[in-house]
Amino acid sequence: MFDEFFTIGEVSKSTNIPISTLRYYDKVGLLSPAFKNDDTNYRYYTPMQIITLKVINHMRHLGFSIEYIKSHFENMDYEHTLQLFEKVLLETKLEIKKLKNTEKELVESWNKFKENFQLEKKVGIPFIDETADIKGIIYNGPVHSLGELSKTLKNIDNFEISNNLTPVLRGFKVSFNNWKKNRFTKDCLIASMKENHTNKSIVIPKGKYACVYGKGAFEEQNIVENLLNWIKENEYSPKNEFYLTFTDLIMFKSKKDFLYLLRIPII
């Protein structure tokens, strides 16, 4: 029995290892066929090699790399293989920790996505909101054109990447004086980070706000004027500035996809 040879196809069926993987093991020097027919290029394995392949299968299932498995077979020493197990266990624990963090972020993004899906149905409907202080980072302005804005946003992106920061809110503060002169002027750019220790400035102060959700390029819309009219109709008075924030970074391809919240402080 142990003198018989098995073709690569038979070995694949017996071990449930694809033929392409068996050829890869041969290529990287993990396990080569006991015999190769140079005329037909057929590969043949012994029964003992099938047992070895099942061991390899099990070790791969446990998370051992090809290099670790090669090291195991080259040394065949309990102490050495025990060290390999400890390495794989440590690597697996780190991967589990990474996956748990990814799961947490995925759930947070999923909930935010569901929230934005509901908010899209409220576009154009004004409402009053009592807002608590929102802390974050204030980036110096003003910017007066799309070109200046793009350059500033690029610098902000570089700053956030280099400091491993994750924005959960981005936006602008705009004074009505600047808005009337140039609809593309932003007094300053604001952002709030997931990393709370970086949120040292109040980017949107607490107070009463007239709010409305919008979608698209707000500079090209009359949403600010419409909300000001609504404020007047409801016998409120606007303060001297407004805030525009974006929270949906997934459903964004062009400016027409922007889902934003316009806040005008009122008294």
UniProtKB/TrEMBL annotation:
Residues 5-75 form the HTH merR-type domain. SUPFAM superfamilies: Probable bacterial effector-binding domain, Putative DNA-binding domain. GO terms for molecular function: DNA binding; DNA-binding transcription factor activity. Residues 82-109 form a coiled coil. Keywords: Coiled coil, DNA-binding, Repressor, Transcription, Transcription regulation. Pfam families: MerR_1. The keyword Nucleotide-binding does not apply. The keyword Transcription applies. InterPro entries: DNA-bd_dom_put_sf, MerR-type_HTH_dom, MerR_fam, Reg_factor_effector_dom_sf. This is HTH merR-type domain-containing protein. It comes from Cetobacterium somerae ATCC BAA-474.
